Please model this.
Amino acid sequence: MISSLLFLSYLCNGVYTSTGHLASQHDTRKSYKSFSGRTLKESIIDLSKDFEEAPSFNSTPETEELLSYAKGGPRNILGYVLLKNGEKLSEYTRDGLPLNFTSQVYSATKSWTGLIIGMMIENGNLFLNETLLDIWPDTSDELWHNVNNANALKNVTIESLLMHTSGFIDDYSKAPTSFTNFTDFGGKTLQETLNVTFFLGDDAVNNFNYFAAGNIFGYVIKERTGYTAEEYANKYIMPYIGINPSEYSWWYNAEGVSYTYFGMNLNPQQLAKLGQLYLQGGLASKMNQVVSKKWTEESFTPHVLNATLGDTQGEYGYLWWIDSSWNATCAYGLGGQYCCVFPDKDMVLSVLSETFPGDTTDNSKYTREFVSLVSSLSFDTENNPTSKGLRKYVVNPIVAGLLLLAYVWL
Model:
């Protein structure tokens, strides 16, 4: 039991339960625009194309500081991409790795799942207040008859799964103890998926308790759309943000149902596409709206206050962490996988880090320090003479000529 608990905590970047305050109707539930005092990005880049390098790519004092940190030892950073104004301001790949390497992003997968759920809601396939009983009606009692805590599970809403406030967490007594035996972790079937949950009790409902690795959403997506999460993404998301299905992968169980709380293997640029999509209010280009701006704002709104998971503290939206100390909203994954959006700086940072199977220590501390370093730097492109940020201050030639004549005349 103890070894399973430690491994699962390590696997999904946390401890077995963490509580926080759910924002109620009496709380100030502001949109992300209002809560941050900032607006999402106004200029839109075409995400179906690769990110272009900024004129000052990897050449400013700030980016040199980042590169120095990433390359220093001991470090577990495999690679990162830092975007500003939709361009690559800095990029790093560890020596010996191909530039297009992919790595498991673990719980950062949750934020991709949140995108799919938002699209389903907007398409009328799903509703926030629907319960699991609405998804799988208790008509024949065949599904629910052998499910533990069936009555409580039936009342779990889609919104509560987006916020980790359902009162359910993973059943750690059934957790794998190594990286080699969790092919079907989360359940080989729907009934098994429902049974690898643990109910903390009625008092836990509406409080934040991190549901690390459950795959209920995988089956919800399959039930309502006919697609696995991977199939849905490959049809409705990836073509618009320039990700070829052959260039990334997604873990799935014995029935072929994609995991939704972990499981994606991506490279830093692909992970950054998610952050840039949300920064652009759901627009993949000026012509393609993947998800509404309203959903991106709702996802970045703090629905849960004082959410805590290990050393991660902040607020929680819809499968996104909100970190006021960084002025960022982030997707987090085990061992230092991050996709952070910094709206006030028009920046996105994605970082992939090495994980060490069997090591339950906090091996992500270097990556967290790296994200903190990024959040602390100004990246003032407007005062950098090699940057595009200065171009808007370049004087029109006609105006310059008139100013010169005025100077000579005087």
About this structure: The two ends are 87 Å apart (CA to CA). Confidence is low (pLDDT under 50) at residues 1-19, 24-38, 385-395.
